[in-house]
Amino acid sequence: MPSLSTTRPQRPGPPSVPRRSWRWGLLAALLLGLVAGSTYYVRHRVQVNRYARRTWATLTRGGLTGRERTPLLAGYSVHGIDVSAYQGRIDWPEVARNRVRFAFIKASEGATLRDARFARNWREARAAGVLCGAYHYFQPNRDGRVQANLFARTVPLAPGDLPPVLDVEAANFHDVAVLRREVARWLRLIEAHYGVRPILYSNHSFYQRHLAGHFDRYPLWLAHYEVARPTMPANKWIIWQHSDEAYVPGIRGVVDFNVFQGNFEDLQALRIPAPTPPASSGRR
């Protein structure tokens, strides 16, 4: 009699996965990354291009020497810079020899911060014959009066200096009405303290969104990059910051580059005036 087989029938295993499936997954991931990268670039192309150019310049030049030069913007006769401790030690006589006629120097920020290089920059820039002004970086979550007091204690503006500047561009606020109220308070207090109307600085998009129409009595210093000219009408601004990646001999690294709308005599007319002597009573 034939013996019974003890071999169990084999169960079918899971279906085999095609070898090409992982390639489709990789392709999908690459396409998703491309879409995400393209979307980011479209939204932030100005910043991406700026950082790419800066990195390329640093790599190809083997390190910055402080002698690099960005051509002056055509069509304007009065050029200037604005600086802070970020620029490090500045050779101000060399800066002045390269047609930099004015400089705004960071003095303070928020309620407590004083720029570490303000005193040195202020002293050496003026000694080099550069027309100087000072600016305060406004923090919207701090009281405007406290910030004005810090600036006034830090900056010894005198007749012949350019007006004080309030830099308003920090977006970390929740109520635009509160922002405008505190900005107005700073401007009002500083105008009373120095006897001259301050200049308001902001970038184009921030100004249009939050400040336009509320501070028209103050001269506007406008930051607007990657454009042939500001889209805002020329009668709305007096200074245009056209680049934040310029090179000026005397500064090792990049610096903000500005032009003044007018000639040098017009710029001088903005300076803090000398006090008017008291009128004679005519008595002897």
Automatic annotation (TrEMBL):
CDD domains: GH25_YegX-like (cd06524). Its EC number is 3.2.1.17. It catalyses: Hydrolysis of (1->4)-beta-linkages between N-acetylmuramic acid and N-acetyl-D-glucosamine residues in a peptidoglycan and between N-acetyl-D-glucosamine residues in chitodextrins. Pfam families: Glyco_hydro_25. Keywords: Glycosidase, Hydrolase, Membrane, Transmembrane, Transmembrane helix. The keyword Magnesium does not apply. InterPro entries: GH, Glyco_hydro_25, Glyco_hydro_25_AS, Glyco_hydro_fam25_subgr. GO terms for molecular function: lysozyme activity. GO terms for biological process: carbohydrate catabolic process; cell wall macromolecule catabolic process; peptidoglycan catabolic process. It comes from the Bacteria. The keyword Transmembrane applies. The chain crosses the membrane at residues 22-42. Belongs to the glycosyl hydrolase 25 family. This is Lysozyme. It comes from Hymenobacter montanus.
